[in-house]
Amino acid sequence: MTYFGQIRRSAADGNPFMVVCPACGGVGRTSGAADLFGRHPLTEVRLSDREPRLISDSLGVGYCWSRWHSRSPNLHQLPDELRDSLSADNAMDIEGGYIRWRTAQLAHAALSAACVTYGRKLAGLPEKFTK
């Protein structure tokens, strides 16, 4: 799992703010997800190298994530541990193993939630963040 750049944290009053990732200094990558999640109350993650795939078919237009199939994944492909953690909340449909969201923003929100759940699990924390 790789994390990039800036991270969004919640202050004691619950208002989010951005800080430079302490593990990479905002310029690189790190594989220390357990440590990062264990030290900081992360509530949102944005993977800057992932973009959902646009699908247009008889069911309509939507955005989805795919499984990681190669050594050089496409922008919409995710490792199994993230793809399997995606929630269908706010999804427009589930068809052929794909969860489809109406907007890229909703697809990114689902991926963010999956990343937070996975990171918290690696750090040995409860699934949901509580104040």
Characterise this structure.
With 131 residues, the protein is α+β, with helices and mostly antiparallel strands. It has a domain at 53-111. It is built from three helices and eleven strands. The chain has helices spanning 33-39, 80-83, 104-122, and strands at 3-4, 6-10, 16-20, 29-30, 42-44, 53-57, 60-64, 66-67, 77-78, 93-95, 98-100. A three-stranded antiparallel beta sheet has the order 3-2-5. A two-stranded antiparallel ribbon has the order 1-4. The longest helix is centred in the C-terminal third of the chain and has 19 residues, at 104-122. The relative contact order is 0.19. Residues 1-10 have low confidence and may be disordered.
Number of separate helices = 3
Radius of gyration: 15 Å
Give the termini distance in whole angstroms: 26 Å
Strand content range: 25-35%
Described by strand count, sense and barrel closure, the largest sheet is: 3 strands, antiparallel
Structural class comes to: alpha+beta
Helicity range of the residues? Answer: 10-25%
User: Quick one: overall form?
Assistant: globular
Order of helices and strands: EEEEHEEEEEHEEH
Side-by-side strand order of the widest sheet = 3-2-5
Spans of at least 5 consecutive residues whose pLDDT stays below 50 are 1-10
Q: Mean pLDDT, nearest integer?
A: 76
> What is the tally of beta strands?
11
